[in-house]
Write a structure and sequence with these properties.
alpha+beta; 9 strands
Length: about 160
């Protein structure tokens, strides 16, 4: 599968709904880099496939899910889903759906904050014009290369 975003430039990628999953390599506690076509070419010569890369990348992040409570009161709860480093943590959404349903109920809205995190709220709350709000925040506050999506999702 190929995502329609320029960040995929011929490297392994997958999709979740219309979101693009692109693997990164953690070089150190302070450095994370994208897989380059040059690295990919070198690995393929050693028999490493795109599926192997995606599998191992997803496996590595599966146990690094962090959920923070941003807003909690009697009527509503807003949760931040990321990883412990808060870096490229939006992928954590793939591994915590059961916990989100336990905490927020059956119908959940996912707000794509950035590639680093997503926000989850109960769909029972009123969220009219949410897509317009997300688009405005992305236009005004999020770096173009860090935009995850311009609309919300339900799970």
């Amino acid at each position: 599968k190929k995502c329609g975003f320029e960040v995929t430039y011929n490297v392994p990628n997958s999709t979740y709904n219309d979101l693009c999953i692109v693997p990164y390599i953690e070089l150190s506690k302070e450095a994370t880099v994208r897989i380059t076509p040059q690295l990919l070419e070198m690995w393929k010569k050693q028999g490493v496939t795109d599926d192997m890369i995606l599998y191992h990348c997803l496996h590595n992040v599966e146990n690094d899910v962090k959920i923070w409570t941003l807003v909690e009161d009697v009527e509503r709860q807003m949760l931040i889903i990321t990883n412990h480093k808060k870096c490229f943590g939006a992928i954590s959404l793939l591994f915590c759906e059961d916990e989100l349903h336990e905490r927020l109920g059956d119908d959940i809205i996912i707000i794509p904050s950035s590639v680093h995190e997503v926000i989850a709220v109960s769909a029972n709350d009123s969220f009219k014009c949410l897509d317009k709000f997300i688009q405005q925040v992305n236009d005004d506050l999020v770096e173009k290369h860090e935009i995850l999506s311009n609309h919300y999702y339900t799970i």
